[in-house]
Amino acid sequence: xxxxxxxxxxxxxxxxxxxxxxxxxxxxxxxxxxxxxxxxxxxxxxxxxxxxxxxxxxxxxxxxxxxxxxxxxxxxxxxxxxxxxxxxxxxxxxxxxxxxxxxxxxxxxxxxxxxxxxxxxxxxxxxxxxxxxxxxxxxxxxxxxxxxxxxxxxxxxxxxxxxxxxxxxxxxxxxxxxxxxxxxxxxxxxxxxxxxxxxxxxxxxxxxxxxxxxxxxxxxxxxxxxxxxxxxxxxxxxxxxxxxxxxxxxxxxxxxxxxxxxxx
Length: 264
Fold this sequence. Notes:
By secondary structure, the protein is of the alpha/beta class.
């Protein structure tokens, strides 16, 4: 069992608990749960059935991890929530398992910060080093790529994708895909600019800065048809891996990408 389990905590018989795990007062661990080494489960937190936690995760008080999907098509089938390593899941956050249409899996990567009252719905796929600020909400089947940041009170429509190093402003509604390295904000969010702060944090080269600015101009501010704009961008900057990621993201988008504030 774990190294430190409070006497009031409930741990189901089939739960598998790793080494050096701390489980606080009144925490609730259901059957068929796996908790990796060096995890910390705070007082009154719940880890529900069919949830797997990797190593070094911290589940704060009153968070509910692995709950049943809020989906009328779900009828109690076995489904999973799989969480990687070193994630920080704060108070009252809710993370739900998958459904049949999403392969019965919700998956979260490593080193993510999911702040208080956030919601990750069924079948979402989160990468690594993501920040979800307080009350940020993902509907079902969303994809969030590495290093994306979602501002507080933001809401992302189901089946929507947020690209790597993208930034969603606070209190924004995202209804279409947000490409990598871009910043979007608004009630029905529009793209305002490249994510300049994010590019500085990733120590982008001057060439990459110029390429991302050109990508923004060609995609949202020019009259060039979008396929032609992407071809032009690829011809100029296709040697940069980040630009290749950007171009592929837009070409593969199923929901279409977010409009510019002044131009669809």
